[in-house]
Amino acid sequence: MSKTGNDGGESGLNIFANDPVHVKLDQNNSSSNSTSDTGEQLTQIKNLFDQNAITQIEYDKLRKPLIEQLANRNFDR
Question: N or C terminus of the chain with fewer C-beta within 10 Å?
């Protein structure tokens, strides 16, 4: 054992590697009214899901209101 009590185990540099990442998308943004912005938000959510930053449940919860917005815009025409 060394003087510091460390046997040479983990350096501690990667202790946060598996910590969850909390992400909040601002869906009340006034610019979210355009279809392209909604599409961009859907892409961002999908990227987060693909990177395992959010769970399937979180993905579905974030995605649902955006899909509903798109559906409502198509019916309002």
Answer: C
